[in-house]
Design brief:
The structure holds two protein chains of two kinds. By secondary structure, chain A is mainly alpha-helical. Chain A has 15 helices and two strands. Chain A folds into two domains: about 70 residues, no CATH class; about 180 residues, no CATH class. In chain A, helix 8 runs antiparallel to helix 9. Chain B has four helices and three strands. The chains are: A mainly alpha, B mainly alpha. The interface between A and B is medium-sized, with 27 and 20 residues.
């Protein structure tokens, strides 16, 4: 199966007889509006049915996919505003603090030194939080643009990540005056506790299982998983929510392993 | 004006709902069949982008009910059925529309007395 077919797996599963690119834009717009997955599947099936009966293409019969999705007036069941998304990622922000503390603590625990907290450390966390807020605030326009001009969207995203990383590295290197010395063990223990608290908080948050399903009851669980590549879908799919929960702990373990390897191979 | 669209779209927007309700009064049917009936009746081509949002609004308002039926070797269809509230709405709107067309026809044809056909309700914005 070639890449183009893979890209439209969801659309071809639900509406095999119609223009997959049109269907993709339609699904994306309804997801962004916060429409329930079963309603999205039904609306798509109705478009497909009409196109098959009339012999018209979706663009010809329904006009632009995004505009038609907005005109349909389907009931919105999920608050997908930036405020609601920010609310739902608060446990992740707590976990990120835990991840930073564990990594910094581990770095100094290996050679047996205390951690000298600097303004650069604090700016690291602030930059990360600011990045999340900006990403959530501009999620919808970026996702719409990503659908129309993926290369430009990916370039913008890469620049955004690079700017954040550069700011963090520059802050660590230039603002290295120690404000406070903390024993490495305390930093490690606090980091682990904060990470666990963030993880526990994430588990207590509702994780709606909202897959896009056909009105004929044919449900393809892979649709929900693939849909998790899109953040709103991720937050609305159970498997996607679990993947989000595991992301920071797994990333932390990876970072600690990298730190350990670098410590082993660095000259003493 | 395109050849498949004999009426101004502003007029169609006003009359489409009552026409769809009237088609559904004849029995349960699906979107494309409704569009075909309207086209055959002389209303012109009603695009899916116009028809289905209207059907959704009617369903949300409780004027129609819908059910999916699997197709034979092709996509399934969503069938629409007029509810009791839909029948009532059709009766009211059809009566109003008849009065409205008599009034406008009378005005356009030369200014006969149309007082008896004035709307019973919703007279805001209409100068007497």
């Amino acid at each position: 199966m070639n890449r183009a077919i893979d890209q439209f797996h969801i659309e071809r599963s639900l509406a095999p007889h119609m223009d997959a690119a049109w269907a993709e834009t339609f699904i994306l717009e309804l997801r962004l509006l916060g429409v329930r997955g079963s309603h999205i599947g039904a609306a798509l099936s109705e478009v497909e049915s009409h196109c098959a009966e009339s012999g018209e293409g979706a663009q010809e019969a329904f006009g632009g996919a995004a505009e038609y999705a907005r005109n349909l007036g389907l009931r919105v069941v999920e608050d997908v505003s930036p405020g609601a998304l920010l609310h739902s990622v608060r446990p992740i922000m707590v976990q990120i603090v835990g991840m930073f503390l564990l990594n910094w603590g581990f770095e100094v625990w290996l050679p047996g030194r205390p951690l000298g907290i600097t303004a650069g450390h604090l700016i690291n966390i602030a930059t990360c939080f600011l990045g999340i807020v900006v990403a959530v605030r501009f999620l919808d326009p970026v996702r719409r643009r990503a659908n129309r001009a993926p290369i430009r969207a990916w370039a913008a995203l890469s620049l955004f990540v690079m700017a954040g990383t550069a700011t963090s590295v520059a802050a660590l290197m230039l603002m290295d005056e120690v404000i406070w010395h903390v024993p490495a063990g305390w930093v490690l223990a606090t980091g682990a506790a904060v990470l666990a608290a963030g993880l526990g908080w994430a588990f207590t948050m509702p994780s709606p299982d909202d897959l896009i399903t056909s009105p004929f009851g044919k449900s393809d669980s892979s649709i929900g998983i693939n849909e998790s590549g899109r953040l709103t879908g991720l937050l609305q799919s159970h498997s996607g929510a679990l993947a989000l929960m595991a992301m920071i702990p797994v990333g932390t373990v990876f970072l600690l392993a990298m730190t350990f390897v670098l410590y082993l191979i660095s000259p003493k | 004006m395109p050849s498949d669209q004999p009426w101004p779209s502003e007029w169609l927007r006003g009359v489409l709902e009552v026409c769809v309700l009237r088609v559904l009064e004849d029995g349960t049917t699906y979107g494309y069949a409704i569009a075909s009936r309207l086209a055959d009746g002389g209303l012109g081509v009603v695009k899916g982008g116009t028809l289905y949002p209207l059907l959704n609004r009617l369903e949300a308002a409780g004027l129609v009910e819908a059910e999916w039926r699997a197709g034979d070797g092709g996509p399934g269809r969503k069938y629409y059925l007029l509810t009791d509230a839909g029948h009532q709405e059709l009766q009211n709107t059809a009566d109003q529309w008849s009065r409205f067309t008599r009034v406008t026809a009378s005005i356009i044809s030369g200014g006969h007395d149309v007082a008896e056909d004035k709307p019973v309700q919703d007279t805001s914005g209409v100068e007497s």
